[in-house]
Amino acid sequence: MGVLLVAIVILRSGLLSKKEPAEPAPAASENTITPTPTLPPEVLSKTVVELYDGIVSMELGEPAVITVSENAVSENELVSAPDVDRTFETNLPILYLSTDSGKAVTSRDVYAPGKLILDGQEYTLGIRGRGNTTWRYYPQKGYMLKLDDSASLLGCLNAEKYVLVSSYVDKTFIRNCVAMDIAACMDGLDYTPKQQLVDVYLNNKYIGVYTFSEKIEPGQDKVDLFADQGMPLSEPKEGDTPFLLETGIDLFNYNVKYGQDHFETPHSPRLRFIYPEFDKANTPEAKFIMDYMSQVDSAFVAKEGWQDLIDQDSWVDWFIVMELCVNTDSALWRSTFLYRQENGLLKIGPVWDFDMAMGNFSHDNKTYRYWSSAEQVYNLAQNHYMSYLYKDDDFMLAVRERWDEKKDELLQVAFDSIDRHTEEASLSRPQNDRVYGRNSRDSQALALKDFLQKRYDWIDEGIHMDDFNRHAATYTLYDYHPQNNAGAEEAAPPAPVPDGELAPMPDAGIALIPDAGIAPAPDAVVVPDTGAAPAPEIVPAE
Predict the structure, then answer these.
(1) Considering only CA atoms, which of 180, 237, 245 is closest in space to residue 217?
(2) What is the spatial distance between Cα 324 and Cα 531, in angstroms, rounded to a whole number?
(3) Distance between CA 214 and CA 155 in Å, rounded?
(4) Residue 139 · residue 436 · CB < 8 Å
(5) Per-residue 3-state assignment (H helix, E strand, C coil) for 432-496
(6) Beta-strand relationship, 271-275 and 262-263
(7) pLDDT of the chain, 542 residues: tens digit per residue
(8) Distance (Å, rounded) from C-alpha 422 to C-alpha 516?
(9) Which of 194, 266, 400, 491 measures 20 to 30 Å from 206, CA to CA?
(10) Edge-to-edge strands of the sheet including 262-263?
(11) Nearest to 139 by CA among 512, 526, 429
């Protein structure tokens, strides 16, 4: 009898446990096919991630049927997943990625051709690295996926490109997903990327829990730069150019040109052109964008005229989401998107990058009692647009009104999201920890709730003060800081907490992430091969 091959078929909607027959099945002979285990309807909401001896195919019906045979899948069956080197149950969708070469993905610029198996379907695609500090310093890398043919994956919008965000710096795994659930409540934000926790295998090796996300890009259902006009994304338009910008510096790309790839205004970080893309510097279209942003800058500083240049609703909603989550890592100085439709006002969003939010950034003010996107506690992120806009009473009054309207909904959505995503990740957590030598705990979800409740209370108190509780940052990165200046006798401690303010938040078990750039993270713990049989030939799904 030929060697029995192993495969896993994924039933998308949850966790499915293998059921043993009541009596042992007879031993298989050369002419015998292993009996078909039939599963009761109540387990339909589960996902099979246990290995069976044989090719496994799934017929979706009532009840679910797993067919185990010696034969390769036929054209009418779902594509089987390749062999993997471990067996465990999971509540999460599973992405099986492979490079055609069988080698690791080592470039952020060049896509390695490969394949994806998801929900029994095979997709051809390219895989490249993505991220700055994540790609450079951490063992769990981020990836960009580019399908050969656009598709809707895991309920996302139909697209060619998707993002796999590393969860390495977030021991809860869930901060990004929770933040997106919060942001989705705010209709002043036109678009919030859909995100989903997933388990990922690359070249038959489990590489952990990731956040699978839509990519932020121009699109009629995403960042719609051409409302009511479709998407003419071929040539930029002179005179009144729609645009999409992202703040921040690409740490790996030094071959950039001012006026072609990026620009700055007096009170902005680097602003990178996402759309349009230019093949030379200082075109009329680029100059229009730079001039517009300079006008916005001047209006913020003067506290006059900004209402005629920006879409206040989007800025108010963005401010509330960022403040509730205390996202100092991407509050305007990087990973912040700004866009403008033709003849429109400047909008801010979509929100992005929350793995270091909610008390998980080593440069956060541990007391959390400040406006985190306006009163930054480290120099790199100070003196930007929001540092001036929040000083305008008209803007803060709009924030107060909107906060009072949405605050209870936001907190409830946040708590529900924490519960849901924590449960989803619970079975995958020990497997992810085994690979990366981590020690994460489901109980950290309680710390997130504690943080958000205290943050909610501080905002609710401060936003109703006459001066909106504005105050300077307690310290900066280059002044006193407990993590960076431990044992430094000459360092002065931060100012004492004034009477009447909320007490500092307890650490609550959330580990601070070390400064990126000081030392790379330790190498990943590689799970050894188990000697499984080679993966079967994959038959593309119809």
Answers:
(1) 245
(2) 49
(3) 10
(4) yes
(5) HHHHHCCCCCCCHHHHHHHHHHHHHHHHHHHCCCCCCCCCCCCCCCCCCCCCCCCCCCCCCCCCC
(6) antiparallel
(7) 433 333 333 333 333 333 333 344 334 333 322 233 333 333 323 333 322 222 222 222 232 222 222 222 233 334 555 555 456 789 999 999 999 999 999 999 999 999 999 999 999 999 999 988 888 889 999 999 999 999 999 999 999 999 999 999 999 999 999 999 999 999 999 999 999 999 999 999 999 999 999 999 999 899 999 875 544 444 555 568 999 999 987 766 777 899 999 999 998 888 999 999 999 999 999 999 999 999 999 999 999 999 999 999 999 999 999 999 999 878 787 899 999 998 899 999 999 999 999 988 765 545 577 888 888 665 556 778 998 999 999 999 999 999 999 999 999 999 999 999 999 999 999 999 999 988 877 778 898 999 999 999 999 999 999 999 998 655 443 333 334 333 333 333 333 333 333 333 333 333 333 323 323 333 333 333 333 333 333 333 33
(8) 26
(9) 194
(10) 262-263, 271-275, 243-247, 337-340, 347-348
(11) 526
Nearest residue to 452 via CA among 310, 351, 324: 324
Give the DSSP H/E element, type plus range, for residue 144.
strand 142-151
Q: CA-CA distance, 422 to 444, in Å (whole number)?
A: 9
Determine contact, residues 379/478, Cβ cutoff 8 Å.
yes
Alpha carbon distance 130, 107 (integer Å) = 9
497: CB partners within 8 A, 6+ apart: 367, 369, 503, 504
Estimate to the nearest angstrom the gap between the alpha carbon of 463 and the chain centroid: 29
**Cβ–Cβ < 8 Å for 66, 36:** yes
CA separation (Å) from 120 to 48, 124, 131, 257, 415? 12, 13, 29, 45, 33
Residue with tokens 């305007």: 332
CA atoms within 13 Å, Cβ hemisphere of 419:
6
Cβ proximity of 183 and 189 under 8 Å: yes
Nearest 10 degrees: CA dihedral of 509, 92, 144, 516?
Answer: 10
Question: For residue 379, what is the DSSP state?
Answer: G
- Domain extents in the chain: 1-79, 94-214, 243-462
- For the four alpha carbons of 97, 101, 106 and 111, in that order, the dihedral sign comes to negative
Instruction: List phi, psi (to 5°) of 188.
Output: -70, -15
Which residues are CB-contacts of 103 (< 8 A; sequence separation ≥ 6)? Answer: 112, 203
pTM value is 0.74
Query: If DSSP codes are grouped into helix, strand and coil, which group holds residue 285?
Result: helix
Can you tell me whether residue 291 is helix, strand or coil? helix
Give Cβ neighbours of residue 33 (< 8 Å, ≥ 6 apart): 68, 69, 70
Site of tokens 């529900």: 416
Token pair in block for residue 422 = 């924590």
